[in-house]
Every structure is written in C-alpha cells, then in structure tokens.
Amino acid sequence: MELIYILTYNCNFRCKYCDINKHVNNISKKVIDQSLIFLEKNNFNIEKVKFFGWEPLLKKDYIKYIVTNFPKNVKKNFYITTNATLIEENFMLFARNNNIKLTFSIDWNSKTIWINRITKWWKDLSNIIIKNTKKYNDFIRINQVITSNNSKDFFANFKFIYDLWVRKFNFLPEYYSEWSKQWLKNLNKWFNEIFNFYKEWNQFELVNLENYSNISFFNLWLIIDTDWSIYWTNLILSWVFEKYKKDLILWNIFSENYINFQDDDFIRSYIDKTWNILEIEYSKNILNSVKYVDLMLNNFCNKMYFLWNIKD
Ligand code: SF4
C-alpha cells in the first residue's frame, strides 16, 4: 500500500497543466504527531511513503521529522517528488542517509521551459533546476512530464536530461486533457523513439515499471491531508475533486473506529463512486484521451519490460 502525506498546498511555480488549487494551507505538527500515533496503532502494510506538496520541500523540516519519527513497526520506503528549486546540500545528505528516493519533476529543456512552467523568477529557477539535476544525477530520478503542447519535444527533452547524466526516468504523459488523434499518433511515435534509443544504448532505468497499477484512471493510495482527513484516491489532489472530498473521505486520523478500506466490496464501491465523479466532471473526449494515453504508456512499459528481461 502507498501512503501519501500532503504537506502543503503551496508551490513556487504555477505550471499550466497543474490542476492543484495552490494556496497557503500547510500540515501542522499536531496533525503529523497524531498521524504517527495512528499509523503505529494500525500497523498497515505500507510499502511506500510519499511526500507530496505542491512543493514538499517548502516543508523540509516536517519531512525530516516524519522520516526520523516514523513508527518502527511499519515497513516503509520514502519518496519525494520536487520541482528541484529548493534543493540544498544538507537536505541531500539527509535524503542519501535515509535512502529517500528523490524525483525531480521536469518537462522541458532550457529552451522550452516557457511552454508550461510559469513563475516570475523563471530564468533563475530554470538555471537552478539544471544545476541541481547535473549535480545530483547519480542519485535522483526524473519525472518527465509530457503534455500535448510540449510533446513534440518529447525526445529532445529526454535527450537534454539524459545528457545531464541522469539515468532513471519516469515518463508522465498528461492525463486529464484532450489529445487530438494526430497528437496521440505523435505521442506513440515519440515513445517508439525513446524505446529505440534504449534498444541501442540500454543505459537508463524506467521507473514507471515500479509503479504498476491495475486501475487505469487513478490510484488507490491512502492520503493524509493537511487538515487530518484521510482519503483513498489520488484524485482528491486535483481542484476538480475538491467539492467531492466530503463524499470521498474515509475517516480522520483522530477517529477510533474506521472503515475497512481493504475489503473487496468497499474497494469496488469506492472505485464505482470515483468513476461516477470522473464521468460527471470530464467529457467523453477527455476520458477517451486518457484511455489512449494510458494504453500507449502501458504498451511502451510492456515493450521495455520485455526487452529488459531478454537482456538480463
Ligand atoms: S511545480 Fe508541480 S506542484 Fe508546482 S505548479 Fe508545477 S506541477 Fe504544480
């Protein structure tokens, strides 16, 4: 099972494709302490603990506190996804010492940053991201975000990051937006380009292979929100789902009694409820786009997995 801590709804970027309603809303020490008691008491089978933020490194002290005080009886690996602008040496040392998997989320090379990433300090920040990527290339992973408006540079952007000597990639095509038929064809073509590059050079790891989910459109993750609520789907992270939070809440970290969210019937009904909301909020065209994008990503992963095993 994966556990997500939302540490803050704030971010120093305003990316065009980001569907998070960014505002100042941070987790508190009280919520963190209670969450640790709650997790220790319930002893869930947690394999991954992920820190989301919108920029989680705005709350570095809380990350350190949670990692240091996480219940010893819970098996876990820690993951952070960051835009890489607030990285500094002390924090990287802490991440290395605690075996934290750190992912930098990047969707551009230095020429195409303008397409999606928006911040008034864009120039300095892009330099910082590139510098940090180069400096920590042996340790970090990259989330390469592919949107319909930057996908024509998919391979060029990949190669740009590859040439910074990063060797662990997670490809993230944008899901909840409409991709035209032509752009879907192109996306497929560019996935093939990356595949051929791998075939020829065989020099990077595909992190997507670690993240298999048997549900296509969303994930079932246990999510601890800043306000103590607990949810069971990553979709609540989007502003589109804010008004449905009351329907999707499981319980809160102060409750004594809670729903058995791992029960098969409960999972089925939760998936149905989430699906109904998706169908209310998104047009057929967008949902079809998600289906095809997901299919392409899956095909790409399967081909890579196959090749990987043959080479082994
Ligand atoms: S850096 Fe990430 S969280 Fe921040 S605005 Fe961009 S996509 Fe959203």
Explain what this protein looks like in three dimensions:
The protein has helices spanning 29-42, 60-69, 89-97, 122-135, 154-162, 181-201, 245-248, 264-281, 284-311, and strands at residues 2-6, 48-52, 77-82, 101-106, 141-146, 168-173, 205-206, 222-224, 229-231, 249-252. It is globular, with a radius of gyration of 19 Å. Helices cover 41% and strands 15% of the residues. A ten-stranded mixed sheet has the order 7-6-5-4-3-2-1-8-9-10. Helix 6 packs parallel to helix 9 (284-311). It has 312 residues and is of the alpha/beta class. The chain has one domain (2-311): Aldolase class I (TIM Barrel, Alpha-Beta Barrel). The mean pLDDT is 87. The structure holds iron/sulfur cluster. Iron/sulfur cluster is lined by residues 11, 13-15, 18, 20, 54-55, 83, 105.
- What's the alpha carbon Rg, rounded to whole Å? 19 Å
On the 0 to 100 scale, the average pLDDT is 87
Shape: globular
Beta-strand portion reads 5-15%
Small-molecule components bound: iron/sulfur cluster
Largest sheet: 10 strands, mixed
User: Percent range for helical residues?
Assistant: 40-55%
Q: Kindly report how far apart the N and C termini lie.
A: 28 Å
Topology, element by element:
Blueprint: E1 2-6, H1 29-42, E2 48-52, H2 60-69, E3 77-82, H3 89-97, E4 101-106, H4 122-135, E5 141-146, H5 154-162, E6 168-173, H6 181-201, E7 205-206, E8 222-224, E9 229-231, H7 245-248, E10 249-252, H8 264-281, H9 284-311
Parallel strand pairs: 1-2, 1-8, 2-3, 3-4, 4-5, 5-6, 6-7
Antiparallel strand pairs: 8-9, 9-10
Helix pairs in contact: 6-9
Bound molecules: iron/sulfur cluster.
